[in-house]
Amino acid sequence: MFNFDISDTLIGQELLEEGEKKGKREGKREGKREGKKEGKKVGKKEGKKEIILYLFEDRFGKVPEIMEKQIDLIDTKMLDDLARSLLNFSSINDYYLWWGKHFSGNM
């Protein structure tokens, strides 16, 4: 049929520019969506961690640095488990028993 590259024409260039703009807008929207989702996830984890550390300190005194570092390493699901278990801890040693049960040799 025709033997030319449409991108060499003014209309072709305009179409390409419009396609690029549309792609950038869609990319920005998707990036914002993903960023919000990730931000909520991180915020939730930080909030849970803060509450757990506050409860530990309130019940057992100063939280050892190693415990804070360990709690930083665990995922949200395990933070939930730790929070429930904390309700039954009678001493800070119960935390170390809990940690050993869940992470012995894993971290």
Question: What brief labels describe this structure?
Answer:
78% helix; 4 helices; 107 residues; rod-shaped; mainly alpha
Task: Describe what this molecule looks like in 3D.
With 107 residues, the chain is mainly alpha-helical. The protein has one domain (6-103). 78% of the residues lie in helices and 0% in strands. The chain is built from 4 helices and no strands. It has helices at residues 10-60, 65-73, 76-86, 92-103. α1 (10-60) packs parallel to α3. The radius of gyration is 26 Å and the shape is rod-shaped. The N and C termini lie far apart (65 Å). The mean pLDDT is 87.
Q: How many H/I helices?
A: 4
> Major beta sheet, specifics?
none
Series of secondary-structure elements, N-terminal to C-terminal: HHHH
Round the mean pLDDT to the nearest integer and report it: 87
Number of structurally distinct domains: 1
Q: What is the rounded distance between the termini?
A: 65 Å
Instruction: Please state the CA-atom Rg, rounded to the nearest Å.
Output: 26 Å
Pick out the low-confidence regions: none
Rough outline: rod-shaped
State the helical fraction: over 70%
- How much strand content do the residues show? under 5%
Give the total of beta strands. Answer: 0
The chain-level structural class is mainly alpha
